[in-house]
Amino acid sequence: MAGDRAFWEEIEGRFRRAAPEADFHSLRVVRTRSENLSVRRDVVQPPSLGENLGAMLIVHAGAGMGYAATADLTEAGLRRAGEEALAWARRSAPRSAVDHAALRPPDARGECESPCAVPWDSIPLAEKVDFLRVQCGRLKTGARIVDWEAALSYAEEDVLHLTSGGGGAAARGEGRRARAPGWRRPPRASPPRRSSCSTPPTARRGGWTSSSIPIR
Question: CA 167, CA 116: separation in Å to the nearest integer?
Fold first, then answer.
């Protein structure tokens, strides 16, 4: 997350200024970038790019706990979410099965980043598409196959967690998923608490899906 440090420091500053007055509060911000490539019926499909950014605030007030999610990461947006979480915490306090006032969440600081031997962007787009063309061609094993597709998906996730006691943790991870036989490059790297996986190719015969068609 070093390249985006100014962005995350700005988010932290907004949160510190907008945080509600409560026994405890925390903020978890998640940003996910994704890219999807596919070849269906031997035709290259339009690539898709995505980016999601949002936050979850948790507030303890007495015995109660409340939370609120928002995609508005401006100072005003974080303040509004904090006020909503605080209101829910106060409402739940008389009925809470857990005494949140007795909890002492940790306030550690640190950073971690999943290692990646071969970055996704280091492989040219043309090479990925050419690979998918070959693999897609291998899926058409007979006349009964009416629909076939090979695909590659990539996701990069940044997570920032802040607490009212000054704690802060940042993490970055990458995940890759292949739906095609033989994909070995690049090596996958899994983000914290999330695993990437490889699924078998799928082809549809006459309207039903099967993943047990032998491919050699």
Answer: 27
